[in-house]
Amino acid sequence: xxxxxxxxxxxxxxxxxxxxxxxxxxxxxxxxxxxxxxxxxxxxxxxxxxxxxxxxxxxxxxxxxxxxxxxxxxxxxxxxxxxxxxxxxxxxxxxxxxxxxxxxxxxxxxxxxxxxxxxxxxxxxxxxxxxxxxxxxxxxxxxxxxxxxxxxxxxxxxxxxxxxxxxxxxxxxxxxxxxxxxxxxxxxxxxxxxxxxxxxxxxxxxxxxxxxxxxxxxxxxxxxxxxxxxxxxxxxxxxxxxxxxxxxxxxxxxxxxxxxxxxxxxxxxxxxxxxxxxxxxxxxxxxxxxxxxxxxxxxxxxxxxxxxxxxxxxxxxxxxxxxxxxxxxxxxxxxxxxxxxxxxxxxxxxxxxxxxxxxxxxxxxxxxxxxxxxxxxxxxxxxxxxxxxxxxxxxxxxxxxxxxxxxxxxxxxxxxxxxxxxxxxxxxxxxxxxxxxxxxxxxxxxxxxxxxxxxxxxxxxxxxxxxxxxxxxxxxxxxxxxxxxxxxxxxxxxxxxxxxxxxxxxxxxxxxxxxxx
Amino acid sequence: xxxxxxxxxxxxxxxxxxxxxxxxxxxxxxxxxxxxxxxxxxxxxxxxxxxxxxxxxxxxxxxxxxxxxxxxxxxxxxxxxxxxxxxxxxxxxxxxxxxxxxxxxxxxxxxxxxxxxxxxxxxxxxxxxxxxxxxxxxxxxxxxxxxxxxxxxxxxxxxxxxxxxxxxxxxxxxxxxxxxxxxxxxxxxxxxxxxxxxxxxxxxxxxxxxxxxxxxxxxxxxxxxxxxxxxxxxxxxxxxxxxxxxxxxxxxxxx
Lengths: 517, 255
Known about the structure:
The structure holds 2 protein chains of 2 kinds. Chain A has helices at 9-20, 61-73, 87-92, 107-110, 153-159, 172-181, 191-200, 225-241, 243-250, 273-283, 288-333, 336-350, 354-364, 374-399, 403-411, 416-446, 458-469, 472-501, and strands at residues 35-39, 49-51, 54-59, 77-81, 98-99, 113-115, 120-129, 145-149, 165-169, 186-190, 204-216, 219-221. Chain A has 3 domains: 9-115 and 217-284, D-Maltodextrin-Binding Protein, domain 2 (3-Layer(aba) Sandwich), CATH 3.40.190.10; 122-214, 3-Layer(aba) Sandwich (D-Maltodextrin-Binding Protein, domain 2), CATH 3.40.190.10; 290-501, Orthogonal Bundle (MetI-like fold). Chain A has 18 helices and 12 strands. Chain B is of the alpha/beta class. In chain B, the strands form 2 sheets. Chain B has a 6-stranded mixed beta sheet, with helices on both faces. The A-B interface holds A 404-405, 407-416, 418, 422-423, 426-427, 430, 501, 503-504, 507-513, 515-516 and B 52-54, 80, 88, 91-92, 94-96, 98, 100, 102-108, 110-111, 114-116, 118-121, 125, 128-130, 132-134, 137, 142, 145-146, 148-150, 164-165, 168.
């Protein structure tokens, strides 16, 4: 089980239902095009994670395995980032052709997708505080608190026992931290997670025998038989040649249960350079100046996320404001059926969560043949959601203009449309600038939700960085500062706009008055 | 005899079953200043609003310079939707000056006068500006064009509103209690403008409580009460020798 942020597991279930229906046939790719593979880099070491030395590079034992498979098949591979929750739906909708992200082979999953032969075998492992001497097995945990990851096999194992209290965490680091602080008495997770965390968090140790058995497989779509056969053949070759064993040893992942299944049996090689490099970077204590350099090194990745956030927010806000105005006008002035439609739209969109709307647009629409790029789906989802709020802002603004203004305009011979365009809306806009600015700032922050549809924006960039550097505070403050800074210019802009729309701001007819005789 | 500019026949209107106008017959001649007086709630303002198509009416007929509108008893819908094209035509011939001025606060005084003809009639902006300057000068606001309505006094705002209505070159100008919202010291400057326009031959119909103005300036005075026209005649006739008891009682309170 891969340690990952698992939000909204009910939504995951909802998506699984959506995607259980047979998907459309993916476009067949030629043998030269890259094989795309989905994974969540936030999963952390040793699966796939940002290289601490160079955060724009993704490394990990699964990266090495995918590269080896690509070499054997003579095809390049391409990594596609996706939130762990959305990995299987993303596979179904064709964002990538396979998932390699610590996905355990389970009967539930095998019903929806197809697994290759296992590329790794491991087990669950208890971790306790160094000074803890009484706990060795789950039986010793009776009437104690045990931490684990949400929706994992370990969690299921713990729930089968009635004699202990289970605490489920979203991320592995939080669970180990609580163990250290004494909020839980033991943590049960996949062995390799325990291995990497115990090595880098002083004060913890692994205890007791291996528990259960877990197999990781490469997932492909049900109808993608061709690819799974190629992968199986490549894995078989890697096992026979010892390449798979070499990769696992480099990451210090070779355990006795791997013997014979993933390569020739034998005592593991004591050389594991990749593991050593990781530990070294993790345990290194930086001096003050080095810390500054280190934080400066995070900036490019965060800035890249911030640009995505900004692009997304601006595009969706422009759409939302434009659509919102039209919906408000429809609600106020259109014929009855359009008015009803506008009211229904506003209530429906406002009454459903943005997250569900994003899932529906990105993972639901492909089932009726509409496949949007992540960016387009994100912009559309945010614009759709916010247009309902903007519509109500505009309605409030328009209704705050006295009726006599409309009468005066009509009495001058303007049509209703002209009166709206030249008299009512210009006055209403000034009224709605403060609430619209408010909404833009809210949208800027709500845009972090689009990480569920594979977009890497500022918040996702932050949590990826924080999870590998084990630094939620410093990087978190950096990310918060970035949100604040990108919102600031728009607040200033709104103030300028307010001044522009204030009577006295400009002349419509143009020119300064001069005497005409 | 000359055809009257406005002809109103058997006009009826009610709001939710309450009759407001119960059979109005009235003719208004060109180039005349007609003053409509009567107690509050007698239907004067409603009659005015029917005349420029802000309000629909249930029965009867209005003819203005050849355009005829028949009552629409299927009322209950807003005026703009009832028979939009004719109402729109009507409004383009009839100017309206409101009690509360209703200038557009987001436009300068000059834009208030110059911009509507650009939108509605599509005349060039430069022509609209020249015309607006001339009209502002006529109402005594030659140097106020760059100010915004909020920066003008009530009297100045109402004069600007008159200039705005004139810019559309209406066949007739309607006033709905144009001085009721004004400080007493500012009333005269507005009435002077109306007298000036009368001397230029502009047709005007004025609902007002300024009896002195009615007596001094009106070509014709019409007295309304309870949704009907009680009597009409020259100012001299109505003020010195009214026929009806209701007229006498009404006027006694003012004079």
